[in-house]
Amino acid sequence: AHLDRIAEVDGKINAFLHVAAKSALAQAREVDRRRAAGERLGPLAGVPVAHKDIFTTVDMPTTAGSKILEGWRPPYDATVTRRLREAGLIILGKTNLDEFAMGSSTENSAYGPTRNPWNLDRVPGGSSGGSSAAVAGYEAPLSTGTDTGGSIRQPAAVTGIVGMKPTYGGSSRYGLIAFASSLDTPGPFARSVLDAALLHEAFSGHDPLDSTSIDAPVPPVVEAARRADVAGMRVGVVKEFGGEGTQRGVLNRFQEAVDLLESLGAKVVEVSCPTFETALAAYYLIAPSECSSNLARFDAMRYGLRVGDDGTRSAEEVMALTRAAGFGPEVKRRIMLGTYALSSGYYDAYYGQAQKVRTLVARDFEAAFQQVDVLVSPTTPTTAFPIGERVDDPMAMYLADLFTIPANLAGTAAISVPAGLADEDGLPVGLQIMAPVLGDDRCYRVGAAVEQ
Ligand code: GLN
C-alpha cells in the first residue's frame, strides 16, 4: 500500500531519492514467513520505514543530498540502518535532504526540493524534509532523521507530525555521514508520539562503534508514551522564546498547549534562559567549523565524483575541480566560514568564544532543570514558508532553528509534537518539549499527553 502511495504522490512531493520496491516486498514476505512459522517478532516487524539518505546502506545508494556522492554505494550499513533491519522494519527507500544536512527547507538538495504535503508551494522543513514529507504525505508510517540544529524537530513541526531529537550519544552516529560530529543526533519521525517512541527504542542505545555513544540503557520512552500523564509535573515556559518575531498563530497554539498542560494537572512556571538567545550565533560558528573539517574527506580520491582526471592534472587540481563541481553553494559557504573561524589568529575570537557560549547554554539548561521537569516553547517561529522565499537569504533561513538549537548545543533531549493549525494560513504548528540529558522519556510522556 505504501509503495502504491509513493507511486501515486511522490512525483509531486519528491520525498524519496531512491525507492527500493523490490527488496521492500521481499523483506515483507520474509517477515510474513517468519511470523507464520511461529517466530516471536518485535512490535515493528513488517512496518515500513523511510530512511534519511545520510545513513549508509549497503544495498542502496547513499548521496547525503550531494552531487559529490552521486552513484556511491557504501561498503557497510550504519548502526541505525542495521538496527532497523534487525527489528524487522522494512526500508522503503532513502529520503531527500539538504546537502549534507545543511539547511532548513530541503531546497539545498542537489536533487531538487521536497514539497510540503499540506501545501505543495511550501517547504517541508529541513534538513530531514524528505523524511517529514514522506510521513506527513502517508508515503511511510515512520521515518528516520538527523538533528544537528533542529533538522528533525523543525521539519516535524511544519508538516504536522512528531519528531524527536534524542539525547546526544543516545543514538549511534556510526555510518551517519558527518556534518558536525559534536551535534549530529539520529532520531525518529512518526504520526503519533507512541509510534515515535517505538522507533526510537528500535534503533537507539549503546554502540561500541561510536566513541561518543552513551553506555547506559535507553530511557523508558515507550512506557512514558503509554503513560501520557502530566499530573504533578513542573513545566517551564522559556521566557526568551515566543515573543517578538514569532507568528501570531504559532503563539496562539503554543498558549493553548500551555493551558492544556495546566488543565491536565501540570504546574506551569516561567523560566528564564538568557543565553538561549545567543545559541544561534554560537551554532553558526561551531557547526561550520566541524563541517569544514569533516568535509575535507571528499577529496575526489576516496568517494563518488571525480572531475578532470584525464592524466594531465595533479591530484590537487582534480580535488579542486571535483569539490568546485560537487558541492553546492551552502556547503561551500559553510566550509569557508568554518575554515576562517578555525584559522590561527581567529580561532580564539570565533571558535573559542562560541565554545564558551555553548557551556553557558548547557548551564542555563542545568539551572532550569533544577526548577522544572521539562521546558516548553514553540518549535519554530513560523509555519512552513514558501519555496524560494529564503533561498537567497541565509540569515532568514538560519532563523528557522532559533528555538531548536539550544538543545543541540547542550546535548539534551527534545521533541516536537503537533499543536494544531495556525489561524493565518491553516498550516501546522509544533510544540517543543525539552528535557535533560537522558530524560528522553519525559519528552514522550508530556508529548503524548498533549499531542493533537
Ligand atoms: N538548519 C540547521 C543548519 O542548517 C540545522 C541543520 C541540521 O540540524 N542538520 O545547520
Automatic annotation (TrEMBL):
GO cellular component: a single term: glutamyl-tRNA(Gln) amidotransferase complex
Domain (Amidase) ranges: 1-443
Keywords: ATP-binding, Ligase, Nucleotide-binding, Protein biosynthesis, Transferase
Sample GO molecular function, one term: transferase activity
Domain of life: Bacteria
Enzyme Commission identifier(s): 6.3.5.7
Biological process annotations from GO: translation
Substrates-to-products reaction catalysed: L-glutamyl-tRNA(Gln) + L-glutamine + ATP + H2O = L-glutaminyl-tRNA(Gln) + L-glutamate + ADP + phosphate + H(+)
Gene3D superfamilies: Amidase signature (AS) domain (3.90.1300.10)
Keyword field contains Cell membrane: no
Active-site positions on this chain: 52 (charge relay system), 127 (charge relay system), 151 (acyl-ester intermediate)
Keyword match Ligase: yes
Pfam families given in the database record: Amidase (PF01425)
UniProt cross-references to PROSITE patterns, sorted A to Z: AMIDASES
Family: Belongs to the amidase family. GatA subfamily.
Assembly and oligomerization: Heterotrimer of A, B and C subunits.
NCBIfam families, alphabetized: gatA
Function: Allows the formation of correctly charged Gln-tRNA(Gln) through the transamidation of misacylated Glu-tRNA(Gln) in organisms which lack glutaminyl-tRNA synthetase. The reaction takes place in the presence of glutamine and ATP through an activated gamma-phospho-Glu-tRNA(Gln).
The protein, known as: Glutamyl-tRNA(Gln) amidotransferase subunit A
Gene: gatA
